[in-house]
Here is the input.
Amino acid sequence: MTGPALSTHSALELEDVDFSYAARSNGINGALYKDFSLRIEQGSMVTIMGASGAGKSTLGRIMAGILTPQKGRVQRSPDFTRPSDLVYLDQHPMNGVFPWQTVLENVRYPLEKLNWEGPRRRDRICYLMTLFRLSALSDVYPAQLSGGELQRLALSRCLSCKPKLVILDEPFSALDGKVKAEITSALHELALKDRMTLVLITHNVSDALALGMRCIIIAKRPVRVMSDLDFHLGFPREESTPDYDAMQQALINGIRDGLV
Amino acid sequence: MDWFRRNWRGLSFVGGLIGVWALVAALRLVDPIILPAPWSVARAVPGMLRERLLADIGMTLGRVLTALVVACVFGIPVGLFLGYRQRAYKVVEGPLHALRSVPASALFPLFLIVAGVGETSIVALAAYPSLLVILVNAVSGAALANQSRLYQARLLNLNSWHTVSDVLFYEALPSIFDGIRTAVSYSLVLVVAVEMFIGLGERGLGRGIYLYQSSYRIPETYGAIMIAGMIGILLNWVVTKAQNRMLRWLPNVREEQ
Here is the structure.
């Protein structure tokens, strides 16, 4: 690939990206993204926020290489040698699993295909199934799982092969508070352990606060970065502490600016 | 007994129909040459089975099943491949639909010329539309495959073979089963019709029905027709069982019990 080299600590860089969908039936046809640039640092946990319809999922798909921008560059870190180093998890967890495989088969399949052998594979499966509390469900088909269980399965499947950058699209929508907290802490543990870079797409302030070290708020037409906030606050994050409240207020302000 | 409890509505409807039939026959409302009584049909069946019908049933079933196996063995892989390689499908799409529009029975003389007078022609005739319908269903099932799952196949660096066998096959399976269902009725209809009117081979349910009718053995004719119907029901039941088993992972499909 030609062009300026990637900064050393970047996991992913978007540079002057233009993107628009082919003619939409509602007549809105302008560029969705125009000269959009963004840098994701290695090892960071970034949240992308924006109102519904702002193009968050589109951004996730551009970053993952599922959508190709009409102009501009999307550069991955040269450390990403395999396609599976950068994964995108769809916001519908059923799309992230193979419904014809049981829970266990779903977690095992990516490892099998990437030639993880013997005890290494067994340990990884065991670790994930325990972390996401799926062990008791190993022989169940995805269609028989509850929403929270299915989300946990989709996450453990997409994280099984230790990707270096993970883009999660609304992983907590449709989950209640308790399940959300469990999954958040599991994700946090895994991100640190595997040194994953995490990009979380959400429209929910508390989801953004649960994991984000940096929060990017985007506004639409054309999409631009409204605010880019850094959060310095340890984990696990306690709600209703002065620091948390300050962060929350900053986020809400950022979103309000984005809407005007 | 569980089975009985689940199916009593259907059973009582069938029972009611037979009751009306018996009543019509008992009151002699219809000439027995046109509609014989249920009991004379029932009395005729054991004799028919001894006489020739068991061999007929075996023959017809054999032909239908061979046709279906041939249709699946060629239709499913080719359909999946065409669904995977959309560009190849675009090339053959037109001719394929043109072929599908030709009534299969109209092609029978051609099959006779190509394959000669014999079993091959009968099986080929039944296999031909079955193959096309299974193929087209496999194509459309594969073409509608979930894009996110195909993306996962790319992430895992799956080769074409594994993408088709591990992802597309399952994505298309519900649609393939719809095709097989249609193919079952095509095959049965065509095999019985050919046996009836084209004197290939001396055996087959169609032949049996025809011979009984032409010798005015009306209760036997009815009996043979009903047996043909039951074979249709049986084949459908087998396909449903296989479908429930192979698609037990689909939402809303559960194995019984």
